[in-house]
Write a structure and sequence with these properties.
The structure is a single chain. By secondary structure, this protein is α/β, with parallel strands linked by helices. The protein folds into three domains: 246 residues, Rossmann fold (3-Layer(aba) Sandwich), CATH 3.40.50; 186 residues, ANL, N-terminal domain (Rossmann fold); 131 residues, ANL, C-terminal domain (GMP Synthetase, Chain A, domain 3, 2-Layer Sandwich), CATH 3.30.300. It contains 21 helices and 26 strands. The strands form six sheets. Strands 7-6-5-3-4-8-9-19 form an eight-stranded mixed β-sheet, sandwiched between helices. A five-stranded mixed β-sheet has the order 12-13-14-15-16. Strands 2-1-11-10 form a four-stranded mixed β-sheet, with helices on both faces. The longest helix has 22 residues.
């Protein structure tokens, strides 16, 4: 394996997240730390101001009797208060249990009970109700602290009430923040993140203080980001991807604009004008589809210029990536189309983006190349909740599209049986909470984490994900099928696609269930004079014919045994609420297969 070019930094890391945060406040007191929306404008706060707010909340938690490593739940969308609460928990030596706000009442109660949360931060009355409805099952929960909900003066208090308790506690214990931080051991539990998984109950992943400090320090060591950057963060903070960005911010010192409203992403990018953003591939798929379909609607000369621009852009960037000189003619054409087309696309994302970071699922290479042709670099990375999210990432000055980059300095990777990716390093979890057998199945005796993903590592250490071991299936003809690869190809080909789920295990051919994106479908329907709601549109002859064309195009790019022989457009999209998607938008294949078992069986009769 190639030697990582970065000097080791692990021995120089601070001991815990609390010290990392307090040191950042001391080093950069007057520089911007966060901004968040208030009405139509954005409010900016410095590191010193956020430090004061965190101290008050941490003091409040200590006044409630929170002990080291005791868990505090956060059930909320991504917002500034989420980050304050999380930092306060860790500065008080507690451990945060993250809960997606879309999690149903029963699973929310299970997570809070399994982790034995002592305090719960609940965003609003809807989230408070999930806790109240199961109060008898949550004997450890002594207080619920709400951001926007209704306090009851006793069990449920407001965020300001907790801060007031903190003011009193800090007045009586003026040095408690630094004293508490200095007592937190690196191996102490910092976070419990419950993986939604695709089967069974969620599993609590135990992540240490040293894991988060390592993650941020590893990115800082690679000099990918600096204090001059501005991040736009919408990702769920309940997800490890959001959490690793928080650790990176503490290490690098840049400012972050926080707003978890997904429907505001594009609008916010134009207002905030960030230099980078992390996102799941679905966001890039939707942006690509939106731009392509809008341009197609223009028609005529504008559409021809658009298509010609991307033909030139793709040719130019491929030559550049391969180290070839594009030549004066191609350079001149690229410059022309940059003024006419690409600069306008970049402006939609704020005009200052140095790169996007894609994670949480595989990014289709065709979509990555499309953005790259427009001068927008998407750096794909890879990791699991079990590795504190970040383990591999491409660098702006050293990347390979289609790969997830090189391993973080300080971590190790190797391929095991069946080319399974195995990871060892400071980011790897302690284990699953209260699940000894599952922990032993995932962690080897010498500390390697079995990821369940198949991969290939080239001579320069760039990793390519080639499949998911458990998602491979074999047809009755003995051919192996990798559904995610086929599904990703279709979503790159069809700008209207939302989900494309392939089945065919032990069958003689492959079939698919398809859903379309409601927004782009509505535009298509208007342009094609098709009326009705989503269900009526997808049943129309015109829509069925349109999708059939894209399936036929997909099949031309597949091996004969992979081709989709039959398919069905569902009359609704898959959703987190239905249990068919995880909160990070991964398809729960077994749930979808169970829900549509009769329909799938019908393809073969």
């Amino acid at each position: 394996m190639p030697t990582n070019p970065y000097t080791t930094f692990v021995d120089r890391m601070v001991a815990n997240v609390a010290l990392q945060f307090l040191d950042r406040v001391d080093r950069s007191p007057d520089t911007e730390a966060f901004r968040y929306p208030e009405g139509e404008s954005w409010t900016s706060v410095t590191w010193a101001e956020s430090g004061e707010e965190v101290s008050r909340l941490a003091g409040g938690l200590l006044s409630l009797g929170l002990q080291p490593e005791q868990r505090v739940g956060i059930v909320s969308n991504t917002r500034y208060e989420w980050i304050l609460a999380d930092l306060a928990v860790m500065c008080a030596a507690g451990a945060t249990t993250t809960v997606y706000p879309s999690t149903n009442s029963e699973d929310t109660a299970y997570i809070l009970s399994d982790s034995e949360c002592r305090v719960v931060f609940a965003e609003d009355d809807e989230q408070i109700a999930k806790v109240k409805d199961h109060k008898s099952e949550l004997p450890h929960v002594g207080k619920v602290v709400t951001f926007d909900g209704t306090p009851d003066g006793d069990w449920v208090i407001g965020l300001d009430d907790l801060s007031t308790l903190g003011d009193k506690y800090l007045a009586e214990h003026p040095n408690v923040m630094r004293e508490t931080a200095e007592k937190i051991r690196p191996e102490q539990l910092a976070t419990l993140i419950y993986t939604s998984g695709t089967t069974g109950r969620p599993k609590g992943v135990r992540l240490r203080h040293s894991s988060w400090v390592y993650e941020g320090s590893a990115i800082e060591a690679q000099e990918i980001l600096s204090e001059d950057d501005l991040e736009f963060r919408w990702l769920p903070m309940a997800h490890s991807f959001g959490k690793v960005l928080m650790s990176t911010q503490l290490a690098c010192g840049y400012a972050a604009a926080i707003d978890g409203r997904v429907d505001k992403i594009v609008e916010n990018l134009g207002v905030v004008r960030p230099t980078f953003m992390g996102a799941a591939p679905r966001i890039f798929e939707k942006a690509h589809a939106r731009i392509v379909t809008m341009q197609a609607a223009e028609g005529g000369a504008k559409e021809k210029i658009f298509q010609r621009a991307f033909a030139v852009g793709l040719k130019h960037q491929r030559a550049t990536r391969e180290g070839r000189n594009p030549g004066p003619l191609l350079n001149a054409q690229r410059a022309l189309f940059d003024r006419l087309v690409f600069s306008k696309i970049r402006e939609r994302f704020g005009g200052r983006v140095r790169f996007f970071i894609s994670g949480a699922a595989a990014l289709n290479q065709d979509i990555a190349e499309w953005f790259n042709a427009a001068g927008i670099l998407i750096l794909e990375g890879y990791g699991l909740t079990e590795t504190s999210a970040g383990t591999f990432v491409n660098r702006p000055d050293d990347y390979r599209l289609g790969s997830v980059g090189q391993v973080f300095p300080g971590s190790e990777v190797k391929l095991g049986e069946g080319d399974e990716i195995l990871i060892k390093g400071p980011g790897v979890m302690d284990g699953y909470h209260n699940l000894r057998r599952e922990t032993e199945e995932t962690l080897t005796e010498d500390g390697w984490l079995r990821t369940g993903d198949k991969g290939d590592i080239d001579a320069d250490g760039f990793l390519r994900i080639t499949g998911r071991i458990k998602e491979l299936f074999k047809t009755s003809g003995g051919k192996y099928i990798a559904p995610p690869a086929i599904e990703s190809k279709f979503k790159a080909i069809c700008p209207y696609a939302s989900q494309f789920v392939v089945f065919g295990e032990e069958r003689n051919f492959c079939v698919a269930l398809i859903t379309l994106d409601p927004d782009t479908l509505a535009e298509w329907a208007k342009e094609n004079s098709v009326s009705g709601d989503y269900a009526e549109i997808v049943e129309s002859d015109a829509c069925q014919k349109m999708v059939q064309g894209y399936v036929e195009e997909l099949n031309r790019h597949l091996n004969r045994w992979e081709t989709i022989k039959k398919w069905k457009l569902l009359d609704h999209d898959l959703s987190v609420e239905s249990g068919e998607l995880t909160p990070s938008m991964k398809v729960k294949r077994n749930v979808v297969e169970d829900n549509y078992a009769d329909l799938i069986a019908g393809f073969y009769t």
